[in-house]
């Protein structure tokens, strides 16, 4: 019996979504694209989930789209891939919970687009990144043209996209493309430690922070200041706010002993 192309593993309030086509470096085919979209739709309605972790099996996070399928039916397959991919990117960015990309090995094309949709990106020191789209004579999908300039700046984004040069993990970190670089042997431990730490924080505060950060480029300063005040007040009126302050004081007292 064949394995599903997307593995869903729930560990408490953390859900791991694992691309599972290691024999083709987790290349995105129609089944995987739709499975990811379906899983994210379900998670978007599940208020008990606190963190999502995206990862890939084997030697890659994701090496772009399935080129064999695209070659056989370019426009038809492209649309059947792009529509669920774009819905997945929308869900990942609009969800009120943190999304962590756990990345090793090859990252290219649609894999890079999904990585850019995550809130935090932890990569192994063996990771290699390539925009890859112009290598196969096409422009990009998955929101890369929207997210990449916002993450690394316009000039750097154009360099990455037009030249399609491979980037090392260190180069990606220097550009601000990723959050942290860790040894491959500790990648899973670091990511799950981060996920558990986020899961232990106040969900409403994290939701407001994610929304404020992601919408800030579309607002003027005065509008953003007003949005911050509304969000802060929403947090402050909750009993969890007082509890968090008390915990903070307790921790300070313990540290001072």
Describe this structure in words.
By secondary structure, the chain is an alpha/beta fold. It has 2 domains: 6-199, 2-enoyl-CoA Hydratase, Chain A, domain 1 (Alpha-Beta Complex); 203-256. The chain has helices at residues 30-44, 67-72, 74-94, 110-117, 144-152, 154-163, 169-175, 187-199, 203-215, 221-236, 239-256, and strands at 6-11, 14-19, 51-56, 60-63, 99-103, 106-108, 120-124, 128-130, 167-168, 180-182. The strands form 2 sheets. A 6-stranded mixed beta sheet has the order 1-2-3-5-7-10, with helices on both faces. It has a 4-stranded mixed beta sheet with strand order 4-6-8-9. Helix 1 (30-44) links the parallel strand 2 (14-19) and strand 3. Helix 1 packs parallel to helix 3 (74-94), helix 3 (74-94) packs parallel to helix 4 and helix 4 (110-117) packs across helix 5. The protein is globular, with a radius of gyration of 19 Å. The N and C termini lie far apart (58 Å).
Care to give the gist of this entry?
It contains 11 helices and 10 strands. The chain is an alpha/beta fold.
Topology:
Elements: E1 6-11, E2 14-19, H1 30-44, E3 51-56, E4 60-63, H2 67-72, H3 74-94, E5 99-103, E6 106-108, H4 110-117, E7 120-124, E8 128-130, H5 144-152, H6 154-163, E9 167-168, H7 169-175, E10 180-182, H8 187-199, H9 203-215, H10 221-236, H11 239-256
Helix pairs in contact: 1-3, 3-4, 4-5, 5-6, 9-10
């Amino acid at each position: 019996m064949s394995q599903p192309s997307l593995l869903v593993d729930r560990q408490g309030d953390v859900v791991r979504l694992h691309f599972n086509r290691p024999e083709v470096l987790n290349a995105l085919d129609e089944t995987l694209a739709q499975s990811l979209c379906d899983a994210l739709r379900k998670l978007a309605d599940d208020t008990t989930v606190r963190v999502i972790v995206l990862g890939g099996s084997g030697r890659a996070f994701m090496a772009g789209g399935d080129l064999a399928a695209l070659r056989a039916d370019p426009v038809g397959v492209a649309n059947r891939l792009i529509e669920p991919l774009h819905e997945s990117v929308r869900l990942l960015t609009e969800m009120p919970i943190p999304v962590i990309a756990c990345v090793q090995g090859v990252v290219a094309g649609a894999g890079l687009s999904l990585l850019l949709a995550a809130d935090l990106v932890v990569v192994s020191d063996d990771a290699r990144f390539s925009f890859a789209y112009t290598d196969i004579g096409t422009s990009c999908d998955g929101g890369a043209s929207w997210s990449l300039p916002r993450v690394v700046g316009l000039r750097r984004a154009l360099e990455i996209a037009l030249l399609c040069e491979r980037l090392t993990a260190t180069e990606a970190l220097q550009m601000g493309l990723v959050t942290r670089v860790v040894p491959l042997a500790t990648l899973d431990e670091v990511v799950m430690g981060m996920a558990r730490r986020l899961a232990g924080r106040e969900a409403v505060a994290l939701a407001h922070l994610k929304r404020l950060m992601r919408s800030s480029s579309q607002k003027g300063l005065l509008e953003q200041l007003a949005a911050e005040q509304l969000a802060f007040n929403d947090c402050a009126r909750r009993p969890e706010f007082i509890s968090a302050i008390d915990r903070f004081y307790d921790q300070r007292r313990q540290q001072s002993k």
